[in-house]
Design goal:
Elements lengths: L2 E3 L5 H7 L4 E6 L13 H17 L7 E3 L6 E2 L11 E2 L1 H17 L4 E6 L5 H15 L2 E6 L22 H10 L29 H4 L12 H25 L1
Parallel strand pairs: 1-3, 2-3, 2-6, 4-5, 6-7
């Protein structure tokens, strides 16, 4: 089937395509990513993986695929202490996603996939997908792109996925945008952070403790990023083919 970029397609074509198409909406953030990665890392990665997957899925998809413009802002208040962050509150993020889903439905769309690139967006994405499906009659799927990482494929040298501005994201950006990567910081030992099995812990001090990034970015390599990106795009393409068939 065909692929369409929403912002490059005219209204008549979209009106004809949307009722049977699968719309893919990447969701990111603009927030600090340590001293070495661009603030748009999450949006860049969600967009790149989604775009590659849409094009790879087209050959096997039972429906046309429409790639919507990436939502660059998300829930990132927890990074304000480092500056360089443009954040929506979780409530506003949920409302924005609801409004975008409402827009897709008003435009004739019936199927929407949210491809999230930021951990802080997980709650808003879940909430928006559930409420918009009820309010607007859409079939909505939501996923975090990093959850598709095939750990078994890279078991011998598995990165911390997704981390935050750590080896995983640093390698992906080094592959996609090497000119945007600064000096990769290293650590002799990892800072101690509060943790308990099967429990998620949030504290105001957490991000200060780890200086705004996780694990060891200095171990990142562009070649790893290329391999990981290809695997993620293939995995998402597979999911899109399934969703196009079943939604």
């Amino acid at each position: 089937m065909s692929t369409w970029m929403w912002e490059r397609t005219d209204r008549e074509r979209l009106a004809a395509v949307l009722p049977e198409a699968l719309v893919v909406l990447p969701v990111g953030t603009v927030e600090q990513h340590g001293p070495h990665l661009p603030t748009g890392t999450d949006a860049m990665l969600a967009e790149a993986v989604a775009a590659a997957a849409v094009h790879r899925a087209a050959e096997s998809s039972a429906r046309d695929l429409v790639l919507a413009p990436t939502l660059p802002f998300g829930a990132s208040d927890h990074h304000f202490a480092f500056g360089a962050t443009l954040s929506l509150s979780p409530e506003t993020t949920t409302a924005v996603l609801n409004d975008l889903a409402r827009s897709v439905a008003a435009d004739g769309g019936r199927r929407l996939v949210l491809v999230n690139g930021h951990g802080g967006n997980r709650g808003p994405c879940h909430s928006a997908a559930a409420s918009a499906a009820t309010r607007h009659g859409l079939a909505i799927a939501y996923l975090d792109y990093w959850e598709l990482f095939p750990h078994h494929t890279f078991a011998a040298d598995r990165p911390n996925v997704p981390g935050h501005a750590g080896r995983f994201e640093s390698a992906l950006i080094a592959h996609l945008h090497p000119e945007l990567v600064g000096t990769l910081p290293d650590r002799v030992a990892q800072p101690a952070v509060p943790e308990a099995a099967n429990v998620t812990v949030h504290t105001p001090q957490l991000w200060h403790t780890i200086d705004g990034y996780t694990d060891r970015p200095a171990d990142a390599a562009s070649a790893d990023g290329a391999a990981w990106f290809g695997a993620l795009a293939d995995a998402l393409a597979d999911r899109l083919v399934t969703l196009a068939r079943d939604l």
